[in-house]
């Protein structure tokens, strides 16, 4: 450890409680990375700091500014873009102990939370009041609301209720120099000044540390109807999404799982779904219109070669639960990469075609799971480690193709997972030099010493 | 005209077509202000520039940078915060001739527009495809989409479909120095880099000129049911909003009009509504659940002292149409001021009480019309010009009270109209010095010479 690092930690320990500055090797290594699969191995941070209140975060940032010490904010580390990976000298600011629900105001339909609250825990707490917090990444039982805000997380219910940004009303943010600011408002509408709340939302810990959030809640729907639709092929399933939209049905959830993923579910849950079809749509209809929307879906697909779950059965609900809680492949190993493009809706069928062609050409395995109602696709590519002909190079080329094709079709390199480290090289494929420059200058404005999660996101 | 101004205009006329630089007195004066009621009289701009393409906007901004010439972007001038008021040397950049709908992509559910397209015109064009552009300020037949974006306009349908921000996917923006950048994405989801689209949305022409927007559309609802509810008092009407929410009903539109406003409608449309009650809620239920939501509303208010429009009648629909197209009092004269606070939902009844008390104390007339489903209230205060005891001072005090009380209750000074010039003095009541400073530094970053709508919004 350098003398700067020693001196920084000494100073830190003077101001923070003993138990909040941890240097245990195991804790350091557990906090050195997230679920993102990165070729470069992470190193250990010099310490992991576990604040229990905002003031401690301020004290940390004051010292970090004084010493020029990089600080990486961390929620649960479920990110899949390497957003919390440690590649150089850094302290991890682990916010998991700031996990109090500070206030639930049912009649205002808002909750006030610390950043370390787990998404699911908030939903359990507000359900008592007949309310829900809508954005539900598939990691909802693990990931923190602070992490959700910092990545502008999507989720299953976002098809109808919008992504995290649409539910964030106000944030308390500790700036790089330790100042604490409050941005946004407590009301659903409000346009006083620039939209700084949206600026911090999705900024992946590079502009400030979120230490408190005012979140919009919604009343739980009066009714929910789940339908599964088994299509002969992936293309037909994707086309089904268009048919549902044209029937003016707005599902709360509309997920796609392909044949290979169905097989994984079969294995995991001892089901036998893969026997009967190619790809599946899982739809949840909710609210006062749920029953009529279910009927409408059944009408749309009545004369088509589609197998629907029978009305009133719990089949589709179980499948959605599997999809929601399934870890799937997200903990990527070195021979598997999951992507996160979003595509204009009309192009999805063509995209799937070209994706399949690219996978075939590079002889890589392809499967797909998608928040397809929003055009957000998660293809996963994999190769056999002992295969001939440089499998990793082929994997890499297939992944790059998937991203290039998405961009050619007017899509984006990341629908919800964020840029982190993993997608940084692709950002210039999507955004112009001027836009990148503007983002860098906003970063410099807020973090002139480049100590907040340096090297990530932009 | 100063020699700088003469030389600036000479240079401008060299690069722009003749008809696009106008110095006609009438045009100058028409373009010197918006609907906002300001004590200081606006002056004429030195010219009004009417570009027909983005490149001309770039040329204008290049020259403006060279000469340090202030430029005020203008849509239709329907703003009510003095956002386009000319108080010093300035050119008006009038975008009304850049009014082409560039593309409608029904299967992507998006439209690409120039900034001068009138909100309603887009809705007419996309209705052919069964689609709508949801955010509908009451000025929708006059205001431009560029102006809507620049103010992050709200509207009637925003209760269910969100404000303008939620429908803006991508923007082309000409920066102060004339560079053209494209921010955002063509897809519903996307988190690549910082949310610059949200930063420009609502920035009231102070950070850049919007020259093209990609807007999200939605399918038109399959069904619409309108209900009017007449309550004995304003407080009971406001309380009714809570009851509707608790029944988990999500109206597309939920507007409040008070007794005085009902009387105005009576006069304007020769109706006789005011005879029968105190205040009115107007609700539109839409989508597959419309009929069931209408039933649910009728159940909620069945045993209460509320008069509902009879089922199947067109009464409520006509009232909503009146509310939507009524100019109301928005063209304020000097003895009348309309406000635009938003309040946490649970506090609305108390707010109305205190507002009435404040109006009574200052002996000013109070009425109210509201996007109440979102907690966004528009009280209007007025005095008789020839009244004794300095009516204008009393008017001023009542307005300030309304804003201070809103802030005390955790509300905001502006729900949707923006800060413009009129609310600038109140911004420090709501936001801390650090937040104001941060906004100013973002402004300096993007507009170092302070030539984009200087003195407005922040
Ligand atoms: C099984 C699984 C399913 C998933 N499903 C989805 C999904 O459906 N949708 C989706 O969007 N994502 C999904 N993800 C990705 C991930 O869960 C989300 O990105 C989530 O929001 C990360 O939350 P976290 O608490 O784990 O944050 P972390 O991984 O700890 O951090 C993520 C980023 O946020 C920053 N950060 C964290 N907390 C703060 C804070 N308080 N202040 C400032 N910056 C902070 C970090 O620096 C980092 O850049 C999934 C991941 C897994 C493993
Ligand atoms: C009868 C009436 C009803 C109204 N109802 C509502 C309502 O329900 N909800 C609501 O939110 N507002 C409402 N308003 C206010 C107003 O209509 C909105 O603010 C509207 O969005 C302004 O659009 P505009 O084209 O008239 O913009 P303008 O008034 O011309 O400009 C407004 C602001 O945007 C900037 N601007 C305009 N175009 C551009 C551009 N292309 N690039 C950059 N900056 C630009 C201007 O500089 C100015 O700061 C109402 C006004 C009236 C008169």
Automatic annotation (TrEMBL), chains A, B:
Keywords on record: FAD, Flavoprotein, Oxidoreductase
Cofactor list: FAD
Domain of life: Bacteria
Keyword field contains Cell division: no
Domain FAD-binding PCMH-type, chain residue ranges per copy: 41-220
InterPro entries (alphabetical): FAD-bd_oxidored_4_C, FAD-bd_PCMH, FAD-bd_PCMH-like_sf, FAD-bd_PCMH_sub2, FAD-linked_Oxase-like_C, FAD-linked_OxidoTrans_Type4, Oxid_FAD_bind_N, Vanillyl_alc_oxidase_C-sub2
UniProt xrefs under PROSITE patterns: FAD_PCMH
The name this protein goes by in its record: FAD-binding protein
Organism: Glutamicibacter halophytocola
């Amino acid at each position: 450890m350098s003398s700067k690092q020693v001196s920084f930690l000494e100073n830190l320990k003077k101001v923070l409680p003993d138990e909040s500055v941890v240097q245990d090797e195991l804790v350091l290594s557990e906090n050195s990375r997230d679920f993102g699969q990165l070729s470069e191995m992470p190193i250990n941070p010099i310490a992991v700091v576990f604040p229990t209140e905002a003031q401690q975060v301020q004290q940390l940032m004051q010292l970090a500014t004084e010493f020029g010490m990089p600080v990486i904010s961390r929620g649960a580390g479920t990110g899949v873009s390497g957003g919390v990976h440690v590649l150089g000298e850094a302290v991890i600011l682990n916010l998991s102990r700031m996990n109090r629900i500070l206030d639930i105001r049912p009649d205002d339909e808002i909750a006030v939370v610390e950043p370390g609250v787990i998404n699911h825990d908030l939903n359990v707490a507000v359900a008592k009041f007949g309310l829900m917090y809508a954005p539900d990444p598939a990691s909802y039982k693990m990931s923190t609301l602070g992490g959700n805000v910092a990545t502008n997380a999507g989720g299953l219910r976002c098809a109808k209720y919008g992504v995290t940004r649409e539910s964030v009303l106000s944030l308390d943010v500790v700036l790089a120099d330790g100042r604490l600011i409050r941005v946004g408002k407590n009301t659903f509408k409000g346009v006083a000044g620039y939209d700084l709340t949206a600026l911090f939302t999705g900024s992946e810990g590079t502009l400030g540390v979120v230490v408190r959030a005012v979140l919009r809640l919604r009343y739980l729907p009066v009714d929910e109807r789940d339908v599964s639709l088994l299509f002969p092929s992936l293309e037909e399933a994707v086309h089904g999404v268009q048919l549902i939209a044209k029937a003016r049905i707005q599902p709360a959830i509309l997920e796609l799982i392909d044949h290979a993923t169905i097989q994984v579910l079969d294995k995991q849950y001892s089901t036998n779904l893969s026997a009967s079809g190619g790809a599946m749509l899982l739809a949840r209809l909710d609210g006062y219109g749920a029953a009529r929307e279910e009927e409408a879906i059944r009408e749309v697909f009545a004369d088509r070669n589609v197998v629907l779950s029978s009305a009133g059965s719990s089949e589709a609900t179980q499948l959605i639960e599997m999809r929601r809680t399934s870890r799937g492949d997200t903990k990527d190993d070195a021979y598997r990469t999951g992507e996160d493009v979003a595509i204009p809706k009309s192009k999805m069928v063509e995209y799937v075609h070209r994706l399949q062609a690219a996978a075939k050409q590079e002889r890589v395995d392809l499967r797909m799971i998608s928040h397809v109602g929003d055009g957000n696709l998660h293809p996963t590519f994999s190769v056999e480690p002992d295969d001939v002909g440089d499998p990793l190079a082929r994997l890499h080329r297939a992944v790059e193709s998937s991203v290039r094709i998405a961009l050619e079709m007017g899509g984006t390199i990341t629908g919800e997972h964020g840029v982190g480290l993993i997608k940084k090289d692709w950002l210039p494929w999507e955004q112009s030099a001027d836009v990148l420059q503007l983002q860098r200058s906003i970063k410099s404005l807020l973090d002139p010493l480049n100590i907040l999660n340096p090297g990530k996101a932009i």
